[in-house]
Each structure stands twice: as structure tokens, then as C-alpha cells.
Design a protein that fits this description.
- InterPro entries: Inner_membrane_protein, UCP028777, YccF.
- It comes from Streptomyces macrosporus.
- The chain has 5 helices and 2 strands.
- The chain has 138 residues and is mainly alpha-helical.
- The protein has one domain (2-121).
- Helix 1 packs antiparallel against helix 2 and helix 3 packs antiparallel against helix 4.
- The longest helix is centred in the middle third of the chain and has 30 residues, at 64-93.
- The two termini are 25 Å apart.
Length: 138
């Protein structure tokens, strides 16, 4: 099911979003000071290309530099990217078939607001106990 959702996502919005994040990453890498944001853009581009079956988790080793970098990102790019994901998510949720894709857009909002100090992992790696039972606490 994840593969089917990812393929439909790729056609309707994933390719364009990933391309946008990749271009932003290239621009950030050309400007040497903004290389950390460029690397974050490339991570988000990979996640935006194939989101179903992955989760965003906080990195435990992220320090104060990630927090300061996220504030700078939030002011210059994060708010606009998050608004774009919210508008697209609402648009997809207007149809019954588009609800999973709207939810995927809403899942991209936190990482588009604060990309530094986050890591994108497979869903079964984020919650390993969920794979073997329905109770994620067990």
C-alpha cells in the first residue's frame, strides 16, 4: 500500500516539491554560509519525494546551534514553506481520495518549519515494537 501511495504522491505533488527543495538546497550550498540549510533541504527533498513509510524524529545530539539555525530558517523560509504545505494539505483533503496526501502534506509542516536537528527514518525504525504488535508500548 505504501508503494502505491508513494507512486500517486510522486505524480501529483512529490516530484515538484522535491525539485523545489533540491533547487533551494543547491542555492544554499552555493552560498557557503548556508550549507547546513542546503543539506537540510536535500534531506527534506528525499522525504518529499517518497514520504509514506518514513517518519521525522528529533535528533538527541542536536544542540543550541540547531535551535539558532532553525530560528533563522523559520524567519526566511520556514513560514512560507509551511503555509504552502498547509494550503496544499487542505486542498487535497477536500476530496476523499486526497485525504492521505493531505495528511502527508501536514506531516511535512514540522520539518519545513524547523529542519535542523531532525532526522528522517523509516517508520519501522522509528517504532520498532510496533512492527511486532499492535501495542507500540509493548
Amino acid at each position: 500500500m505504501r508503494t502505491l501511495l508513494n507512486l500517486v504522491w510522486l505524480v501529483f505533488s512529490g516530484l515538484w516539491m522535491a525539485l523545489g527543495y533540491a533547487v533551494a538546497g543547491l542555492v544554499c550550498c552555493v552560498l557557503v554560509i548556508t550549507i547546513p540549510w542546503g543539506i537540510a533541504c536535500f534531506r527534506i527533498a528525499a522525504y518529499a519525494l517518497w514520504p509514506f513509510g518514513h517518519r521525522v524524529v528529533q535528533r538527541r545530539d542536536a544542540g543550541i546551534a540547531s535551535g539558532v539555525g532553525n530560528v533563522v530558517w523559520l524567519v526566511f523560509a520556514g513560514i512560507w514553506l509551511a503555509l504552502g504545505h498547509i494550503v496544499a494539505g487542505i486542498g487535497f483533503c477536500l476530496t476523499l481520495i486526497g485525504i492521505p496526501f493531505g495528511i502527508a502534506h501536514f506531516m511535512l509542516v514540522p520539518v519545513s518549519l524547523t529542519p535542523l536537528g531532525r532526522e528522517i527514518v523509516r517508520s519501522d525504525a522509528a517504532y520498532p515494537s510496533y512492527r511486532w504488535s499492535r501495542n507500540p508500548v509493548a
